[in-house]
Design brief:
Blueprint (H helix, E strand, L loop, with lengths): L42 E2 L7 E2 L8 H5 L66 H16 L4 H12 L6 E7 L14 E10 L23 H8 L3 E4 L4 H8 L3 E2 L3 H11 L13 E7 L4 E8 L9 H38 L10 E8 L10 E7 L5 E8 L4 H19 L4 H15 L5 E9 L4 E7 L5 E3 L5 E3 L17 E5 L5 E5 L11 H19 L7 H9 L11 E8 L7 E6 L5 H16 L5 H18 L4 E7 L2 E8 L19 H8 L2 E7 L2 E9 L2
Antiparallel strand pairs: 1-2, 3-4, 3-8, 4-5, 6-7, 7-8, 9-18, 10-11, 11-12, 12-13, 13-16, 14-15, 14-17, 17-18, 19-20, 20-21, 21-23, 22-23
């Protein structure tokens, strides 16, 4: 006769009333069939469909199940496989499966669920054991799906605990290596330490996610298995080389706790006190967690003494759970490391802090495109320039990958170097275009480079295919600046044009990347207009005479992004122009002659007297004299001297010699070489910057 399926799930596409599914069920006696006599002869008389003997010749097939409608010569008829009487007892079917024919002849076992092997009833309120191989397969499938849903380490470990308790075990302990190895990295220490990462116990209600019916479980009494383990297990343990725990972990396969290997390994893992509450018999399983290349931890599955012990097939289930969990933990650790590298890369590619140049205040924001794309090609920068000027840069490299971030870093470094040469904005973009072509044929980027002069209250802007900046005036009017669009960097053979515009005091310039104004829901023009309206609306909140705070303004601009508007990463740079009043600036030209240092001292003294800073005269005159003396010694053209009064007093001396001075320690017999030493000791800050026409040496003093 046909072997019955191991599960009572109905095969897809089979109707229980269809004669084509007769082989999937226990054969039913035909109408008029005579039951087998009690003497055990096994003779069965069939109806019209034919006749046969269960223990001898004949056939029981489709015609026996179909009754008078079937003929005896059907192709589905099969000979009996044995001459012995059939003693196979069909397994009890769940309530969702129709009762099988002949089920009324089975002996009654009493009310309630029963254990398959012993026939003993399961106490109410306890989890029903997995009685069939199909149960285990369904449980493993549901548990692995739950484990696979986790993206980080904690989610995966929690998925393992919630999937196994209470369906598979009443409690679970998960130990992981501390620290967890990443990829192919070798552990820094020779010792292997395991830390208790998570414990879980049986909840008050069954978890129905695995596909089993919910059962009301009484809350555990104090002092039960899990409560005692939680109080006695240690948080850390060391895996001693050559010890029992090391041997079990090296074996990879799960083992019962009552085995000799596990009996010696559990005290090392849980502690001597914890092993006293581990139930006897096969009610504890120790499963090593092995990743791709090494063991990364261990899991202990526990059952209460009143519950049925684990079976040998349960070791295979524990092995599957441990394997999926370990591989998931490996992936989570690698993902965390990649996310950390991406964050560090992006952080180092962008300015850690913005400078505080004279006459301008700055604020910035950066947002990645998504949580899974932490790096991108957008960048911003603010570079102090000679003459209290500042260069404002915003750029965008195509893509959101490590390659885009690397190219962005190279272009940003190139822009900083070119800015240090004090090149005009259009020349900076030209050299950036050449650099992008040297990096590769498909290295495309957009960039906007602007130079703000707080003394002249002017700004010079050059654009390379970037969205235009928006200028918010003090009265609340926002306008999109008309700058030549230019071609993106990397195209090659294109000239860039610069424009010079007014930068009134109190105005705010907003530089941004296209991720702020362009998305799948709107085009660039619409986004720029929305940005202009947002800036104007924000300015109206603070009144016409008070510009909005920069940090709050940046936050308000980012709030214009709605759901679905984050298709690209965003870089934002806001600059508030304070400027330097003409009355706070002193500027003179000095001929390169011996009398120049004395004249410089007199001019500085008069400026300090006009500003009410007479108490700084001695220090300023000394340092001005030393710097001007060094300049006129080698200069061939007039030397420039400029004093700026802001929150500090700044002095700038320029000449046509490109060589930068270097601080050195003069010997006792040297007649010179002490000028920069005095500047370094007395000034708050000092430096030297090379220009296209020479250099500028500057120093700052705190105002008293």
């Amino acid at each position: 006769m046909t072997e019955q399926p191991i599960s009572y799930e109905r095969p897809q596409g089979v109707d229980p009333t269809d004669h084509r599914g007769a082989l999937l069920h226990t054969p039913a006696p035909a109408p008029g069939a005579t039951a087998s006599p009690p003497d055990g002869s096994g003779t069965t008389t069939c109806g019209k469909g034919g006749k046969g003997t269960m223990g001898g010749q004949g056939a029981v097939g489709k015609d026996a199940a179909a009754g008078p409608e079937a003929g005896s010569g059907t192709e589905h008829s099969q000979p009996s496989a044995s001459t012995e009487p059939d003693t196979h007892r069909p397994r009890p079917a769940p309530e969702s499966v129709p009762a099988q024919p002949g089920a009324e002849a089975r002996p009654e076992r009493g009310p309630g669920p029963q254990e398959r092997r012993t026939g003993m009833a399961v106490a109410p309120g306890r989890p029903t054991p997995m009685r069939r191989d199909g149960d285990r397969l369904r449980f493993v499938g549901a548990a692995t799906r739950r484990i696979a849903r986790g993206l980080d380490l904690d989610e995966i470990v929690m998925g393992l605990c919630r999937a196994t308790v209470p369906t598979f075990s009443d409690a679970i302990l998960v130990y992981l290596r501390d620290p967890l190895p990443v990829g192919d990295e070798r552990p820094a220490a020779d010792r292997i330490m395991l830390r208790l990462r998570r414990t879980d116990r049986i909840p008050e209600e069954r978890d129905t996610e695995t596909g089993f019916a919910a059962l009301a479980l009484p809350p555990p009494e104090p002092g039960e298995l899990t409560a005692e383990l939680s109080a006695s297990v240690g948080d850390m343990c060391e895996v001693r080389p050559g010890g029992a725990l090391a041997e079990v972990l090296r074996g990879v396969r799960p083992v019962f706790a009552d085995g000799p290997a596990a009996r010696a390994a559990l005290p090392e893992l849980l502690g001597e006190e914890a092993t006293l509450v581990v139930p006897d018999g096969q009610r504890a399983v120790l499963a090593p967690l092995r990743g791709r290349r090494r063991v990364i931890g261990a899991a202990v599955f526990l059952r209460r003494p009143e519950r049925l012990p684990f079976e040998n097939d349960d070791l295979l289930v524990a092995a599957q759970l441990a394997t999926h969990s370990a591989l998931g933990i490996d992936k989570a650790v690698l993902y965390d490391r990649e996310a950390y590298i991406a964050d560090e890369l992006q952080r180092t590619m962008l300015p850690e802090t913005l400078p505080r140049p004279t006459g301008v205040r700055l604020a910035s924001r950066y947002l990645p495109a998504a949580e899974t794309a932490r790096v991108g090609g957008d960048w911003y920068d603010a570079i102090p320039l000679p003459g209290s000027r500042v260069a404002l840069v915003v750029g965008d490299v195509m893509g959101h990958s490590m390659t885009s971030a690397a190219i962005m870093g190279q272009l940003r470094t190139t822009a900083q170097t070119l800015a240090g040469l004090d090149l005009p904005p259009q020349e900076v973009l030209h050299h950036l275009d050449e650099q992008a072509q040297r990096l590769g044929t498909d290295r495309m980027a957009t960039c906007l480079y602007a130079v703000y002069d707080p003394v002249a209250h002017r700004i010079t802007i050059a654009n390379a295919g970037h969205p235009p900046p928006v200028l918010l005036h003090l009265g609340g009017r926002a306008e999109v600046l008309r700058v030549p669009p230019g071609a993106p960097i990397g195209v090659g053979g294109v000239d860039f044009e610069a424009v010079e515009l007014d930068a009134p005091a109190g105005a705010t310039l907003l530089l941004y990347t296209d991720g702020l104004v362009e998305s799948r829901l709107r085009d660039v023009a619409t986004g720029i207009e929305q940005l202009r309206e947002k800036l104007a609306a924000t300015a109206r909140l603070t009144g016409p005479d008070h510009p909005p705070p920069l940090e709050a303004l940046c936050d308000e601009v980012l709030d214009m992004l709605g759901p679905g508007d984050r298709d690209d990463d965003i870089a934002l740079l806001a600059a508030r122009f304070d400027g330097i009043a003409p009355s706070d600036v002193g500027y003179w030209l000095l001929e390169p002659e011996d009398a120049a240092p004395g004249r410089a001292r007199r001019l500085a003294r008069r400026a300090l007297s006009r500003w009410g800073l007479e108490d700084m005269s001695d220090s300023v005159e000394l340092l001005v004299s030393e710097v001007v003396t060094n300049a006129v010694r080698y200069a061939t053209r007039p030397v420039t001297l400029r004093l700026l009064r802001t929150d500090v007093l700044r002095c700038e001396v320029g000449d046509d010699v490109p060589q930068l001075p270097r601080l050195r320690q003069a010997r006792a017999t040297d007649e010179g070489g002490r000028g920069l030493y005095l500047v370094n000791r007395l000034a708050r800050r000092w430096g030297a910057t090379r220009l296209s026409t020479g250099k500028v040496v500057w120093f700052e003093l705190n105002r008293s």
